[in-house]
Specification:
CATH architecture of the largest domain: 3-Layer(aba) Sandwich
Pfam family, one: HTH_5
CATH topology of the largest domain: Rossmann fold
Order of helices and strands: HHEHEHHHEHHEEHHH
Number of strands: 5
Structural class: mainly alpha
Radius of gyration: 19 Å
InterPro entries: ArsR-like_HTH, HTH_ArsR_DNA-bd_dom, Ptyr_pPase, Ptyr_pPase_sf, WH-like_DNA-bd_sf, WH_DNA-bd_sf
Helix content: 40-55%
GO molecular function, one term: DNA-binding transcription factor activity
Strand content: 5-15%
Distance between the termini: 28 Å
Keywords: Arsenical resistance
Oligomer: single chain
Protein name: Transcriptional regulator, ArsR family protein
CATH superfamily of the largest domain: Response regulator
Shape: globular
Length: about 240
């Protein structure tokens, strides 16, 4: 589904491949949902990630937490994005494959739009370092680096901040600087590192997490006390 959608929205600008950690063929209901959406299925095949061993991609996107864990270290990418979608076979509602495809479609449209609007490597080192000069912004970036994606309510808990406008103001500054990207789900906004952020800037952020873990130890403890990500997300989006 994701391969067909990204090829469609990318309009030939990107090479797109899909694979599974334990492929067992394409479910006919998947092909039916894609065809019903109006996209071709003739060249879609079931492939294993092992087929791409040794290759390097600009983006590696996993579509559930299980796949993120199983594919870690098996596929190489400059930007590794972990999305978490409920698989259609696990859904208990009507038309589960069509609904999963619609959710993927919305996320992929946002992803492509971010790529088209992004201006990689235009963030000056001075602006980048100034963005790290405030504890809230720095801790936010480190939390995002660890969690991959967080919403405002999670940051309020993690940072022990009572003022949502204050946290949102800092997030807006990081987004304006081009360091964070966001996506909207219902009335909530979720933030992640901008996938087009220069590699050296990402390395500065991740190196800070690795070399000074105590700096956000309490923040991560408060965040983890909220439960696992699906539970936290459900609470945020109620």
């Amino acid at each position: 589904m994701a391969e067909a959608l990204l090829k469609h929205h990318g309009k030939g600008k990107y090479q797109v491949f899909s694979a599974g950690s334990d492929p067992s063929g394409i479910d006919p209901r998947t092909l039916s949902a894609i065809e019903h959406f109006g996209l071709p299925t003739a060249n879609l095949t079931s492939k294993s990630v092992e087929q791409f061993a040794g290759e390097h991609f600009d983006f590696v996107i996993t579509l559930c937490n299980k796949a993120a864990a199983e594919c870690e270290g098996r596929v190489s990418g400059t930007n590794c994005l972990a999305w978490d979608f409920v698989g259609p076979k696990s859904r208990k509602e009507a038309n589960p494959f069509e609904k999963t495809l619609q959710e993927l479609n919305e996320r992929i449209k946002t992803f492509v739009l971010q790529l088209e609007q992004a201006t990689p490597n235009t963030i000056s080192p001075t602006r980048f370092y100034k963005s790290l000069a405030d504890d809230i912004r720095l801790k936010t970036l480190l939390i995002v680096a660890v969690e991959h994606e967080v919403c405002v309510c999670e940051l309020l808990v993690a940072l022990a901040e009572e003022s949502q406008p204050k946290v949102s103001r800092h997030l807006a500054q990081l987004k304006k600087a081009g360091i964070l990207s966001d996506r909207k789900h219902q009335q909530w906004v979720f933030y992640s590192l901008n996938p087009t952020l220069p590699v050296w800037m990402k390395q500065v952020i991740t190196s800070t997490v690795v070399n000074e873990p105590n700096f956000i130890e309490q923040e991560l403890a408060r965040l983890n006390a909220m439960g696992d990500r699906p539970t936290r997300t459900a609470k945020c989006c109620e």
